Amino acid sequence: MKLLGSTTSPYVRRTRLLLADCPYDFLNLDIYGEGRDELRKNNPALKIPMLNDDGQKIYDSRVIARYLGAKLGITAPSWDQENQLTLIDAANDSCVTMLLSKRSGLDIEQDAMFYNIQRERIMTTLRTLSAMVDAGEFIDWHYPSICLFSLIDWLDFRALVDFEGNENLLSFRDHNLQQPMVAETDPRKA
Questions:
Q1: Angle at 24 between CA 19 and CA 28, to 5 degrees
Q2: Which terminus of the chain is less hemmed in, N or C, by CB atoms within 10 Å?
Q3: 10 Cα distance to chain centroid
Q4: What number of CA atoms fall less than 13 Å from residue 177's CA on the CB side?
């Protein structure tokens, strides 16, 4: 198996954490620089991660997780866990949008519907995920927990949100720092 991605992507990190016990090759790409051609060549969606398993290409982290689950015998997420993943992805997607907008020189603090919707989605989903953490829904280290961990650590790494009122999300992250491959996939080491 070969995984294409970037060490700073939370979507790539979740896949690498899921693959913690599996042999695979990792190609770290600068997707906004010289790695863009490699990305174009391998994934027409221009997204990371991308998995190539002996010619079978998978273009999205959630689909990769489903593929690996079937291949490796990992229990599929329940419907409640699928909803958790949808919340995690919604916050993640909105935060990526905000980061890319900011890096493009756009004023993300402006009172514009597009940015207001992103901020609302981020805070609503984080509050909901915070309540789920308090309810014990992420105690086990499974794919939804891996995705939440990757999101929270990436948000902290990029300083994208104020965790005031949701400090338990940082506690959840800190509690899982000793999980397999967490230290090796830390985006701060990129």
A1: 95
A2: C
A3: 3
A4: 9
Is the CB of residue 15 less than 8 Å from the CB of residue 48? no
Which residues pair with residue 53 across a beta bridge?
Answer: 56
Q: Ramachandran region of residue 80, left (φ > 0), alpha (ψ -120 to 50) or beta?
A: alpha
The neighbouring-strand residues paired with 25 are: 2
Token readout for 178 is 């000793």
* Torsion sign (Cα): 134, 129, 66, 176: negative
| CA diameter of the chain | 48
Phi, psi (5° rounding) for residue 181? 70, 0
pLDDT tens for each residue of 156-178: 999 999 999 999 999 999 999 99
The tally of CA atoms less than 13 A away on the side-chain side of residue 20 is 17
